[in-house]
Amino acid sequence: MSTLYDKLGGAAAVDIAVEKFYEKVLADERVQHFFAHTDMQQQKQHQKAFMTYAFGGAKHWNGSPMREAHKELVAEMGLTDRHFDAIAEDLVATLVELEVPQALIDEVVQIVGSVTHRNDVLNR
Q1: Would you say 24 and 92 are in contact if contact means Cβ atoms under 8 Å apart?
Q2: Is residue 87 within 8 Å of residue 25, measured between CB atoms?
Q3: ∠ CA 94-23-61 to the nearest 5 degrees?
Q4: pLDDT tens digit string along 20-68?
Q5: CA distances (Å), 51 to each of 75, 80, 108, 111, in order?
Q6: What gap in Å lies between CA 52 and CA 23, rounded to an integer?
Q7: How many other C-beta atoms can be found within 10 angstroms of the C-beta atom of residue 30?
Q8: Contact criterion met (CB below 8 Å) for 122 and 81
Q9: Cα→Cα distances 12→70, 78, 110, 122, Å
């Protein structure tokens, strides 16, 4: 059975999606300030690795736990549900722009928009 990662198009598709996603995020006034002092090349690599893992393209996640990775953003920069939703909207808009079938977008949203993932990112 193929993974969501495979259905989306594998590494090449994730690479393109992450590039377009961050174009949207950095233009989004609701969330762009969170990335003002971020090494975006490194951030994109982290995001590609996370999506590869989250969508079934890798068996293990070697990055920081979500709570740890976002702890300072919550405590010092006030990361909230509103920001989480904005990022999710930017991701969905990216997938729509890339003409990803709605059924696959729904699968992506189930993963990255899950209550567990949201609570981990927002340190709840």
Answers
A1: no
A2: yes
A3: 70
A4: 999 999 999 999 999 999 999 999 999 999 999 999 999 888 888 888 9
A5: 25, 21, 9, 10
A6: 19
A7: 14
A8: yes
A9: 27, 34, 22, 29
CATH number of the domain bearing residue 62: 1.10.490.10
Host domain of residue 47: 4-121
Identify residue 118 by its one-letter amino acid code: R
| Domains: count for the chain | 1
Tokens in use for 109? 């949203």
| Distance from C-alpha of 29 to C-alpha of 76, rounded to nearest angstrom | 18
Statement: the pTM of the whole predicted model exceeds 0.85: yes
- Which residues have CB under 8 Å from 16's CB, separation 6+? 98
CA 79 – CA 70 distance, rounded (Å) = 8
